[in-house]
UniProtKB/TrEMBL annotation:
The organism's taxonomic lineage, starting at the top: Eukaryota, Viridiplantae, Streptophyta, Embryophyta, Tracheophyta
Protein known as: RING-type E3 ubiquitin transferase
Species of the source: Elaeis guineensis var. tenera (Oil palm)
Residue stretches of each ANK repeat: 46-78, 79-111, 113-145, 158-190, 195-227
Keyword tags: ANK repeat, Metal-binding, Repeat, Transferase, Ubl conjugation pathway, Zinc, Zinc-finger
Uppermost EC category: transferase
């Protein structure tokens, strides 16, 4: 993998380009002492500069030496591709980070497909490169001029966003990162693939089950049609991806969707978000089992599913404080600043049941069910464990525990939410604080 030089220049130039490609630092430095201007040469056909070749082949030390000689980081090859694009294309994260440090422009488009470095990282599934580019976009002039959300949803020459490319190639982890950074889940393409295709159409066409699952969890519309009038379900059926088709069937149960109030909550810490995501995927996995019940298809675990807690933690978990909404899961999420705790399943259920305000058509902020204060920040709860003959001591948060009623349909926390809501006013304090009298946990539709 990498970019091999193809030049019809002198043997000295050819040997220099081969040394850059192979990472022969001694040979590179020797050639530069003989002819410093060789840095400004390029291969004859592809017009690859030494910087392009070093970036594509992951030669960090040579790339740094070239940049230290004041070579511009945004040199263009025959297809107007920058070294940054080639580093993203080949997954050379160290070289990509060094180019970003040198001021490489993340908002340049090539002439081959009209793509940016973000498109290439998404297309080839290089998650670390994708994250590095997104991090750079938040702190560069791009965020000020274009806006971060516009950059995440930038279209190539055929009208495809990075999310479309990741879905077409089957990279669920890249989808996850892009969606978490504001990618539009149901945006249609232009001329790319079949016109009007959404990321869900593209994932269905490839039979990428984890991608379908990820997109559905972020609210992708199963009934949205492409320019030919096809919904993703029909696309999956035509390609004989029957497990995908079962989940995409508009007549099957709706998946649980990552709640809008929590999607981009600035104060949602990564560890708390991971617990909530695991709870959502757990609930959807139970739904998927019911959809495929009686069929010959079985679904693998979601890519973000952490599984059950270890046996050592399992015995420990029985002594931990249970959520006093469902009395089934351990309290893993804490609302700040009020300090009330509940399990991740019930936290999601509260937010999933929030109804839009009809006068403003906006989702109201979710409310803590115990004190009715707005939920603006969620963190991992510091759970207590009772030790024999000793006072309470704090333990590290454990992984999310699977529902004890593993044979029941769906997640028990979501299933029993309505009954839990009705009885909240009657519950006493169970370590989570006194519940406000007569409070209604859900906004009326």
């Amino acid at each position: 993998m990498g970019q091999a030089p193809s030049c019809g220049r002198s043997s000295h130039d050819h040997n220099f380009f081969k040394a850059v490609e192979g990472g022969d630092l001694a040979m590179v430095e020797s050639s530069l002492r003989m002819d410093p201007e060789i840095l400004h040469q390029s291969t004859l056909y592809d017009r690859l500069s030494p910087l392009h070749i070093a970036a594509a082949n992951g030669r960090l030390e040579i790339l740094s030496r070239i940049l230290d000689r004041s070579v511009h980081p945004d040199l263009l090859n025959r297809h107007k591709q920058t070294p940054l694009m080639l580093a993203a294309m080949h997954g050379r994260i160290a070289c990509l980070q060094r180019l970003l440090q040198a001021g490489a422009n993340i908002l340049m488009f090539d002439s081959l497909h009209g793509r940016t470095c973000l498109h290439y990282a998404a297309y080839y599934g290089h998650l670390d490169c994708l994250q590095a580019i997104l991090a750079a976009a938040r702190s560069t002039p791009v965020a000020d001029s274009w806006g971060f959300a516009r950059f995440v949803n930038v279209r190539d020459g055929n009208g495809a966003t990075p999310l479309h490319l990741a879905a077409k190639q089957g990279w669920p982890n890249c989808l996850h990162i892009l969606l978490g950074n504001g990618a539009l889940v149901s945006a249609p393409t232009g001329r790319y693939s079949y016109q009007g295709s959404t990321p869900l159409h593209l994932a269905a066409r490839g039979g990428y089950l984890d991608c379908v699952r990820e997109l559905l969890a972020w609210g992708a519309d199963r009934k949205q049609r492409d320019s030919s009038g096809r919904i993703p379900y029909i696309v999956a059926l035509k390609r004989k991806h029957r497990a995908c088709a079962a989940l995409l069937n508009p007549l099957s149960a709706e998946p649980l969707v990552w709640p809008s109030p929590l999607k981009f909550m600035s104060e949602l810490k990564p560890d708390a978000k991971a617990l909530l995501e695991a709870a959502l995927m757990d609930a959807n996995r139970e739904r998927e089992k019911n959809i495929l019940k009686g069929t010959t298809y079985s679904l693998p675990s979601p890519v973000h599913w952490e599984g059950e807690i270890d046996n050592d933690n399992a015995s420990e978990a029985t002594d931990m404080e249970l959520c006093c909404i469902c009395f089934d899961q351990i309290c893993t999420i804490e609302v700040q600043d009020c300090g009330h705790q509940m399990c991740a399943h019930c936290t999601l259920a509260l937010c999933c049941h929030s109804k839009p305000n009809p006068s403003t058509l906006c989702l109201s902020a979710p409310l803590c069910p115990f004190c009715r204060s707005s939920i603006a920040r969620l963190v991992v709860a510091k759970t207590k464990i009772k030790e024999e003959g000793d006072k309470d001591s704090f333990s590290k948060p454990c992984k999310l525990r699977k529902s004890q009623n593993s044979n029941s349909e769906g997640s028990s926390s979501f299933k029993g939410l309505s009954s839990a809501v009705g009885s909240l006013g009657k519950m006493g304090s169970r370590g989570s604080g006194k519940i406000a009298d007569g409070c209604d946990m859900m906004d009326k539709p």
